[in-house]
Structures are given as structure tokens and as C-alpha cells.
Amino acid sequence: MHKGHGLRRATVLALALLITAVVPAGTSAGNSEGNHCIFPGGTDFNEVWGVSEAIVWFNCTTVGAGQDWRVGQGWGMEATFKKVPKGFVPAGATPLDDFLAKFVGVKYVVDPGTARERVYRFTDVSRLLVGPGAAVNGVTMGTMNALSVGSHAVEAYWTMSATHCDGFVKGGCLPAGDSLAFASTFEVTPSNN
Fold this sequence. Notes:
By secondary structure, the chain is of the alpha+beta class. It contains 3 helices and 14 strands.
């Protein structure tokens, strides 16, 4: 790989991870084209994140019938602790070190509160996507099974063994247990075959 291409990919990955953590739900962030989540400007997040399945993430809200799929779910942190909340005990020198020391996995609830509800837990923490800078994304943790054609919903949670804080002066913390990180509705569309 050309050195410039690797740097560009690292920059795009860092931006993608950061945007995942900070873009509010409902914001127009991209669209689904076939199996791919395309960001305005043409960035293909399937390519950036190295996954082939459909991605549910912000405006990437279409999955084809019969397709397995993933959820883009990010958490951004400061490079160092700008602030440590009272009573918080970091398990590492940086917020990223603390996150990685306390990270247990991700939980996805598909069609929550309905008769179709399914819960997926992925706990192989070595599969977590850690980008350049202090950002992580659960998109590589695992895939969900194909769903029936129609409207669906998903809730994505971080699972931590103890409280983790992001290090920002006005930052946030994830308590021990499951913390909702992302929720979205999406459509499973009929296959074009």
C-alpha cells in the first residue's frame, strides 16, 4: 500500500470513529448503496472499516433481504484525561487505556419490545475496532442474522466491567453494565433478483 493512501485511510478512519461518537441521531450522515454505507463525499465505510455486510448507522438505514448486517457504534475520547470526575478511578494512563481495560463487549437488541425481539452479545474484545487517536467502534464485533422484509429497530449498547470516563472536560462516562450508545430504525428491502 502506498504510504499516502495509508495515511489517508487512517485519517478517514479517525474521522469516521469520531463522527460515530458525536453526530446526533437523526442527522443526515450518509446513505446505503447496495451493501455499502456511503458517507457524503463518497467515503465507503464498508471499505474503511473492512466489513462486507450491510451497516446500520445514522442514514445508512437499508439492508437487503437475506443479508446479514452490522451496527456502526462509536465512542470518542480525549487523548489524555483533561478531567477526572470525583470518585472515578482510571484503569489506565489515558481514556483509551481505561476503556480497553474495562470493555467487556457490545449488546444489540433487535426489534426491542416486540415479539420479534432478539438479543446479540459479542464479547471477543480483540475484535473491537480501535482507530488512530482515541476512538473505538463496535462495527467489527459481530454480525446479526438476516431479517424479514419491513421496518425494524436496533439498540446498541457498550458493556463495561466498571465505570469508564472519556476524559473530556464536559465529557461523559459509561457506568458498569450496559449503556445505550446508538438506536436506529431501518428497513429491510426485497432483493432485486
